[in-house]
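Record 1 of the preview.
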Amino acid sequence: MKLLLVSATGLCLFDGSQGKEFHYGAAFGPPFDVTTDCTDIDNISPELLLNWGPDNRHDATINVCNNANIKFVPNRWGRDFDDPELNALPNNPTPWGVIMENEPNWWGPEALTAEHGDGCNMTATKAASRYLAGTQIINQKWGIGVVKLISPSPVNKFYPLCTYEPETNCAFQAQYTWFAEYFANCGTCFHDTWALNLHDYSCNLASTQSLVADMNRMYPNKNIFFGELGCNGPSAQQMAQYLQDFVAWAYEVPTIVGFIWAAINSVGTPGSELSLNGQLQPVGQAFKTIQQRYPPVLTP
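->
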């Protein structure tokens, strides 16, 4: 079983006037087995939990290991997790929040479609219409303001505007440009926070900081949630150092309200595990350290 770090926070207002929250959790899967993997879950003791497995985002693993202190964070992802799965979530326990579309601008071998397939191939305009439908389901199911509403999370600082694979020589689009189209079609939508995915291939914190600077320049005082954050360091120790450096910086930045540690493009990146067979790994040890050095600030 491989565990990956999640940290997430949410605010009800974009301007941060209610103060900053900071939460810690873990993503898991695939595969995941509640009968054998609870030792690793308990070893990390996360507040938030995201199930990455495509077939069980909405099943009994929500209440994994019977730990009432863990809150569930599902994410919509095309046909793997769409309106039917959102409707099927149990009323209790209530999710902490929902990421309303994971990597909508990710492209794969299928033609442009509303479903992910091997790639989402979703325009920002389409993502906006799906966000409205998803938030209606959430608010009707649990009530307004109960579950955090997190925007779609476009992938990487710059990403090619391809619509199928192996299309090449596509123009690249910045995440903040994707958001410009998205909010032109969802300008009155309520979001607790905006989401970004960033996989820093060099474990270079300066690159991550430049992305936040770009977003703050284009959209001042908007909350930023890293739906996926990771780096592809040559060693577990370098990944752990990046994680510690990121949290030391992000904890003091008012607009950064959380992140999901997602390694680099796959759940199984060597060295990215938090806990393995009940033993803390270097990234897991970093997770424990930052929890103590930068205590979580919980939702009022």
